[in-house]
Amino acid sequence: MITSVGEVLIDMIAAEEGDLKDVGRFEKYPGGAPANVAVGVSRLGVEASLISKVGDDPFGRFLIERLKEEGVSINGIAIDTEKHTGVVFVQLKGAKPSFILYDGVAYFNLKREDIDLKILDESRIVHFGSVLLARSPSRETMLWVMGELRDRAVISFDVNIRRDLWRNREEEMFKTIEKAIKLTDILKVSDEELKLLEGEGIKAEGRLLTAITLGKKGCILRTQEHEVEIPGYPVKPIDTTGAGDAFTSALLVGIIAFREYFTESTLMKIGRFANLVAGLSTTKRGAWSVPRKEELMKYSEARDIVNRL
Ligand code: ATP
User: Per the database record, which ranges form the Carbohydrate kinase PfkB domain (predicted)?
Assistant: First the structure.
C-alpha cells in the first residue's frame, strides 16, 4: 500500500478569468496535493490510503465520499470537531495562477494522536507534501511521523515550494524544508525548485532517488549510481493542474513495480511511465485527472509497469 499524509481540501476554482478580486463564480473541486497523489495511485491499480484531517461539516463529508468513490482508504482521516475543512480559492486562468488559502483549518490542526501508526506500518511507501510544514501543529506532527518512519517505510517527499504560505518567513521555509529533505528517501523536485534550494546551499537529494521534473521536457531520475533523462510524453495540454501530483503517483507506482531496484533500464521504464501518466493527465481538466490502469494498457510504457504489479 502507498499512503499519503497531508492536506485534502476544497479547491474553489474561478469559473471566469480575471483577478480573484473581481471573479464572481467559483466551482467546487476536491484537491490537496497529497490527496491527488493518493487518488492517482489508486487509479493506477495500487492500494492507496490517505492520512489527513477534515472538519465535521458538509465539505469534509464531500471529500470523504469522493475519496471513497476513488477507492482510497479513508480510515486514516480524522474528523476535527473544532476546525473546518480547508478551502482554497484559485484562479488558474491567465498568466499567473493565484490563490487564497485559509489558516486555522482542520489539516493544519493534524496532531500526533490523529495518526494511526498501524496504517503506516502496512505501507510500503509513505508520501508527504510540504503544505503541512507551513503551520503548527501539523508541521511538528509531520516531522515526527517522518522520523518515526525512518527505516520502517520508504519516505517520499514533494518539495512543492509555495512562497505564499511562508510570507515573511523565507528563512524558516528553507530550514524546515531542509529538515524534511534529510528524512527523505524519494525526493521529487522541479528544476526551478532545485535551483532555488541549491542557491540556499541545501543538498536536494533523496537517499534512494531524486526525481527532477522539467515540465513538458520530462524528467531526470537520479540515484547514487545512475542518472537518466527521459523526454516528456508529447501531448496537447489543456490543464496542467496536478501534473506534478500525477507524475508523483506514477513514479511511486513504478518504484513499487520494481521493488526499489534501480538500474538505468528500470529507471528509464519508471520515468517513461511517470511522463506518460503526467502528460496524459494534462489533457483532462482538474487535479484528479490520472487515467485509470485499464485505459493505459494500450501504451507499452504502462504495460512495462502495470504487468509487474
Ligand atoms: P506542479 O506544477 O503540478 O506543482 P511540477 O512543477 O512538478 O508540479 P511540471 O514539471 O510542470 O510539474 O510537470 C510534472 C510532469 O508533468 C513533467 O515531468 C512531465 O512529465 C509532465 N508534464 C507537464 N507539463 C507537460 C506538457 N506540457 N506536456 C507533456 N508533459 C507535461
Answer: 2-288
Ligand 1 centroid, distance to 149 Cα (angstroms): 29
Q: Is the CB of 290 under 6 A from ligand 1?
A: no
Residue spans of the domains in the chain: they are: 2-306
In angstroms, what CA-CA distances link 304 with 5, 216, 253, 278?
A: 28, 22, 12, 16
Q: How do strand 87-91 and strand 98-101 relate by DSSP bridges?
A: antiparallel
Q: What is the pTM of this model?
A: 0.97
ipTM score of complex: 0.97
- What's the pLDDT band for 240 if we cut at 50, 70, 90? confident
Q: 2-306 maps to which CATH number?
A: 3.40.1190.20
Q: Is 66 in the pocket of ligand 1 (CB under 6 A)?
A: no
C-alpha count within 13 angstroms, C-beta hemisphere, residue 63: 31
- The distance in angstroms from the start CA to the end CA of the chain is 11
For ligand 1, mutation pick of 11, 249, 282, 299 (most atoms within 8 Å of CB): 282
* Amino acid found at 227: E
